[in-house]
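hiii so my PI (J.) wants the whole complex modelled not just the main chain, which honestly fair. so below is everything: two entries, each one labled with what it is. i double checked the lines twice but i was tired so who knows lol
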Amino acid sequence: DIVLTQSPASLAVSLGQRATISCRASQSVATSNYSYMHWYQQKPGQPPKLLIKYASNLESGVPARFSGSGSGTDFTLNIHPVEEDDTATYYCQHSWEIPYTFGGGTKLEIK
Amino acid sequence: QVTLRESGPGILQPSQTLSLTCSFSGFSLSTSTMGVSWIRQPSGKGLEWLAHIYWDDDKRYNPSLKSRLTISKDSSSNQVFLKITSVDTADTATYYCARREFFDYWGQGTTLTVSS
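here's the output for the full assembly
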């Protein structure tokens, strides 16, 4: 199985500043054309919500404050400027092979 | 618009079989490349992908649970099903269905408690 390691496990970011979340895969999840890495936001009591698909493609309706980057094994989710509503847990997930796996999650607090 | 809704028994005793239904609307599971996955999340913990069924009835399972899982669909009634045999307390979780391999739409989830 491909292991996705997210860091940090938690972070606190001041309102209006940048939050950066990393996801490292145990093997490449990318071809020359596509990176099979996706990012989700989950708030308590709610299902996850897709933010970014294929590493850098912003899902429709998601604010442009969210951006994704990376290739190969290293991927990043950036949120800038952070807002109070961004308080949530963020997960990365790959769809490179079976089984699909998720990262352990990063809990974001807004100061 | 796309919606998915999970339903299940809520509570089971150990060794029983879990039957879950995902009822969806706003898309067709007969459309090429379309698919639906089941994912679960124990309370306060992370997400675990369980199984995926494609428009052409191809099925994929998490190897860690494969012997216990059966996914199926009824495209005409817009439903996807998941059976998990021999449940135990470790299967206590919220179970979600979600569309496609990048999970762009999710249901609200159905909670299962396994307890004797």
